[in-house]
Each structure stands twice: as structure tokens, then as C-alpha cells.
Amino acid sequence: MNIIELFSNDLYNSDEFYNYFSKEEILHIPFELNDLIDIDQKNENKFIFPNIIEFLTDIYVTLKIKDEDFEYIDSKLKEIDFCKKFSEYLHSDSLYKKQGAILAYAKMQKAENCKYLEDAFINEYYKKNPILTSACLKELYYLRSRKANQYEKLIVENIDIINFISILLLEDGEPDSNVLELYKNEEILIKIKPENLKDFALNFEIFILNVQGVNKIKDFTRDEYVKSINYYEKIYGSYKVKDFNAFYKSALQEMKNYT
């Protein structure tokens, strides 16, 4: 089956790789993956992006295909500079696609791809989007980017509400003494107790994903993230969700009007 036709019309099941593709069709997969990105960018097909992610996960993580097929696909993807083409998703207007692309680069486990994440971090995410700032930096550390330490230092030295949430999301455990010192000195999130900072950040991320999902919003601007953090600080620990859709639709309107 043609991968463009398959990935455009249904969800891909990696267990069925050899039922989907003949030997001849496997030869075309790397080139058609490139074409799929262009198709998705133009038409915003709901299947293409998750299918590309599932496919990359299959060949680089779960390794369900034969070694010879993996080696062919991997070599051709490198030959046609697929990873550069795929980096367009790091600059998408969709939070979902940007998150997925960040994780996909980590799954590919290629240090040479750090340059794409580094570019997105410094030009797209830093000081604008705390969710992507932390996610991107985590994977830069995972891929052993030489710039990861520099970027974390940049966040700490230029602290604001966006960067502070980024730091909280970046930390695996509870905030360390340096983060708590920033919290105290900068008077950020003054309504949140120190012991609740990590929980606040994690639940804020979930809150944002739900608000955007229910209201079909691709992503927020920097100002909208700042406003959403301030609004969530106000309601943290006091809200209950009885009607999921109604709550997050109402939350968006309240957030827009919050000063």
C-alpha cells in the first residue's frame, strides 16, 4: 500500500507493517514521508502527524521491523535530510505537534538533531511557552546537547513568570534550594506555598492542554500564557470539574477577562 494513502486516511498500526507494505513499497517509504509533511502542512490532515510519530517510534524504539528494512529506511532518511524537513513541526502553530516533534527527535536518538531543537528552543519557545521550553530542554539534555547547560542558565538568569514555570516543569523532583530562593526573591506565585510549587506547575500544564483541547485552540501567545498562569494561580486548589467541556469553555472566557 502507498504510505501517503495509508497515513492520510486512517491510523497506522505498526504491528501490520508487513501487511501494509510490499518490498517494492518499502523502498518508497522514506521519500513519501517527506511528501507527507508537505501534505499535512497544507491540508492539516488529522491522521498524518500521529501516523508519522507512530512510524518513527516503531522504527527507532520498538524496532518491530527487520534489521535490513530499518537500515535501508534509516539510511535513506539521512540521505534526503528528513530530520531537517521534520523540524518544520517544531515551528508549527500547534502545541500538540510541537510537543510530538520534540519527543520524536528524542526517540530518534541522534545527537546531530540537537541543532533543530536548539534553534526551536532559542527562537520559538524560550520566554514564550513554558511547556515547550521545559520539554525541549529535557530532550536536549537527553541527547547530550552542548548547549543544554547554557540554556538552563539562561532561564535562571532571566527569570520571569514564564521561565519560572519552565524551571518547575524541568525539575524531575521537588524544587531545589536554588529554585526556592528564586521564588522567594522574585516574589513569583506568591499565593502558592513552596511545597505546592511542583504540583502547581504540573497541574497548570494539564489545565492548559485541556483548555486548548476543549476550545480547539492550537496554542497560546506569550501574553496569553502569562495571563493563564496568573488566572490559574487564582483558582488553584479551589476548583472542581463537574462538566468537563463546560468548565474549560468557561475557564477560557474567565482567563481572557482576567487582569
Task: Fill in the keyword field for this structure.
259 residues, mainly alpha, 15 helices, 69% helix, globular
Describe the structure.
This protein has 259 residues and is mainly alpha-helical. It contains 15 helices and no strands. The chain is globular, with a radius of gyration of 20 Å. The mean pLDDT is 94.
Topology summary:
Elements lengths: L2 H7 L7 H4 L2 H21 L4 H15 L4 H13 L2 H5 L8 H14 L5 H12 L4 H13 L5 H10 L3 H10 L6 H10 L10 H18 L7 H14 L8 H14 L2
Helix pairs in contact: 1-3, 3-5, 4-7, 7-9, 8-9, 9-10, 9-11, 11-13, 13-14, 13-15
Summarize the structure.
The chain has helices at residues 3-9, 17-20, 23-43, 48-62, 67-79, 82-86, 95-108, 114-125, 130-142, 148-157, 161-170, 177-186, 197-214, 222-235, 244-257.
Instruction: Tell me the β content.
Output: under 5%
* Cα-atom radius of gyration: 20 Å
Q: What's the overall geometry?
A: globular
Distance between the termini: 54 Å
Rounded mean pLDDT score: 94
Tell me the structural class: mainly alpha
Helical stretch tally = 15
Largest sheet: none
The residue ranges in which pLDDT falls below 50 over 5 or more consecutive positions are: none
Q: Percent of residues in helical segments?
A: 55-70%
Count of strand segments: 0
The sequence of SSEs as H and E is HHHHHHHHHHHHHHH
